[in-house]
Amino acid sequence: MVVETIAFALFALVTVGSSLGVVLVEDVWHSALLLGAALLSVAVHYVMLQAEFLAAMQILVYVGGVLILITFAVMLVRREDEPEAMEVFEA
Amino acid sequence: MSDDPNDGSRPRLKRDFNPVPGLAAVALFAVLALVFLQASFGEAQGFEQGASITASIGYAMFNIDAGAISGAVVSGEGFVVAFVLIAVALDVAIDGAVFLAKSEDEEGGIGAVLTDGGREIREKLRGGDD
Amino acid sequence: MFAPPEAYLVLSAAVFCIGVFGLLTRKNALLFLMSVELMLNAANINLVAFSFYWGNVTGQTFSLFTMALAAAEVAIGIGIILVLYRNFKDIDVTEATTMRW
Q1: Most B CBs within 10 Å: which of C52, C57, C64, as the mutation test of the B interface?
Q2: Answer CATH for A2-90 from 3.40.50.720, 3.50.50.60, 3.20.110.10, 1.20.120.1200
Q3: What UniProt keywords are attached to this protein's entry (chain A) (predicted)?
Q4: Facing residues of A25 across strands?
Q5: Is A79 an interface residue toward B (CB < 8 Å)?
Q6: How far apart are the first and last CA of chain B?
Q7: Can you name the CATH fold of C5-88?
Q8: What digits encode the pLDDT tens for the residues C64-84?
Q9: ipTM of the complex
């Protein structure tokens, strides 16, 4: 029982910490990566609640679909004042 | 780690927040946590021993009568109407995404340039193939 | 259950309020999309936790539908953000203050 409580507290900490990182970090790409960490730790919470099918769906739909879409958008809408934006044309 | 603020790869925290809406969100969390911690819950019931939860989700999603199925089934409500409504909503989402993608395509703005991988603008800049 | 229901309620309230915080303080449209994802996930945590608490599968089925709606919402949101970028050369939501007609 103590081990289970420690596991819950640990993954709750990971969930809340990486969610805070999503809204507090400056760069959008870092936000997207931290969102992936938050979604994966929510999947761990589902496994602890005996919802294994939902955990699989969480990883497939969110990490495999939604996060990839967000990654595409991050790559497509890089702003021009950022230094990375011009590297494409210099290469 | 260099001290150069522009070295790029290190995550940095955003600092210029507007404090008032942030405090509103924190206050919302304080109220919610106060209410939740004062509520009293009994012991959790948990799922029935030996029942397949994944199969039970399937039975609940399509209104299949659990009495006709052998083996332990976790009870739940029927969701077939919600299933059809979500299916229609997903259809509308596909149509909306296609509409957004094809509207104003003929203008040839920066979006059309960037969605071909920057090929057009590179050819304009360098005037040749690479 | 690994923790009492109050713990799951407080966890999901925390994630939800972080989402509200992101919506209220940031200006990037992509951050808006991610904050909405966080809030939907908070709702899903509650649904699954109480599904286990009552020994009933309704909450899990409903959170599956929520996931489908979240995926559709992101597809539309990405389309809107790309159009926003095409028209305004930026995805700052406070910049887009004019309409075409």
Answers
A1: C57
A2: 1.20.120.1200
A3: Membrane, Transmembrane, Transmembrane helix
A4: B13
A5: no
A6: 36
A7: Helix Hairpins (1.10.287)
A8: 999 999 999 999 999 999 888
A9: 0.90
